[in-house]
């Protein structure tokens, strides 16, 4: 059984939290996120905390801004437990507003800037946001104020009103109980209404320590944030992990492969966590060797499987970069498994092993553990699992049990503890009684040089129950339906060969967090 080193496991003890969950915890940890930030300010006052466009703030400068904004928010009537929605792109004010909320004990609700007006209305109303901080480009998308009875202020950054807020009377950080909610993140949900996962100070501190220790982060780290700051990956793997290590968050507003590599070189970036498609674009669109990326040590990825062909090519082109798969979710405050250093190449089809404080069960539909190596649903427990969903006791009751979050992901664990992910339960195609994991076909087909991305869905069939339909994004006019089928046939069992192939010269539909929305594709068949 592969496990984390004793330097890490020796830091863990058992504690009881939330509704009686007995958890493995890091015993020596900051009391709350305000203490974690204060530690960084004390350790590295003059080190850069955030770089965003032309703005560079050291920890000391950021601390002053946060104190002022916390005072301004308090003067505007925001108090402990009040929700402050943050609708901002990746810019320094995101960080300032987030940490100012925590400083006064309020709850930050970062919202993805790609949400449409109806989703924004739902989220702002559901969390009962008291105040909203938004970017100027989003003004036209804001819901009508009449639809948001709890909302007292909507403040646009880049205005004198925001400047006044940030110039508020400096506020000292409040002391706060670690099980208090710090952030509510609405899960994008490819089905149903978004649910607001309540990330507590305790959850976020544990996930930040997991990233720090499992990725081997030290002093002077610089992480390039190119996924949305409002998604759990950006928020935890970059922003809070950098606070934990007193490192710097370099913010990129809009991802472009060449712009990313140029910025990573210019800013001496050391660590990243992105979705696999972004790494793939480096290979498709850029000459990686044109950039001086010698400081970039850790290339984390997650959110979706990375095709093995991409892993192999990246390893060849960026030999000093350690690729680290991390599997997680919003409800898990980001990571549940991380690939230990040294195993990325030999275990390329796995998402790694359970994080040091995490416990993972793999269960059958009755909730019983399946034997080693067999497929089942991943149930995940640990100090990073959120206590539940905001104002949603039904979903909290149905999706959590005994401290475990029922992930809906299907996977298996081998004798060494490595977890393989096969699919999300609902994405499985059942064709003539065979269970076919969409991810397997998608992974295979993405390895074809002409395929930019693809997504598999089950198409209802009167005889077989479902047939396989694959949507392929390609710009190669010579790549046709037969080529797609032949490629899968060459690599997988015959019953996994798609019955239908749709070729698109445009990207597949994605939700605000960048996941392909299969419900949209299902409407097309
Ligand atoms: P979200 O809550 O938006 O972060 O989505 C979480 C889901 O993304 C998980 O339940 C998985 O289905 C998927 N996911 C996350 N990390 C990985 C990974 N490393 N490999 C494959 N799928 C992943």
Quick overview of this protein structure:
This protein has 525 residues and is α/β, with parallel strands linked by helices.
General form: globular
Biggest beta sheet attributes: 5 strands, mixed
CATH architecture of the largest domain: 3-Layer(aba) Sandwich
What small molecules accompany the polymer chains? Answer: adenosine monophosphate
Structural class: alpha/beta
Given the structure, what is the number of helices?
A: 15
* Overall average residue pLDDT: 93
Q: What do you see in this structure?
A:
The protein is of the alpha/beta class. It folds into three domains: 1-30 and 181-424, ANL, N-terminal domain (Rossmann fold, 3-Layer(aba) Sandwich), CATH 3.40.50; 56-176, Rossmann fold; 436-522, GMP Synthetase, Chain A, domain 3. Helices cover 29% and strands 26% of the residues. The strands form eight sheets. It has a five-stranded mixed beta sheet, with helices on both faces. The relative contact order is 0.10. The mean pLDDT is 93. It binds adenosine monophosphate. Adenosine monophosphate (AMP) is lined by residues 187-188, 232, 302-305, 325-330, 351, 407, 409, 421, 424, 513.
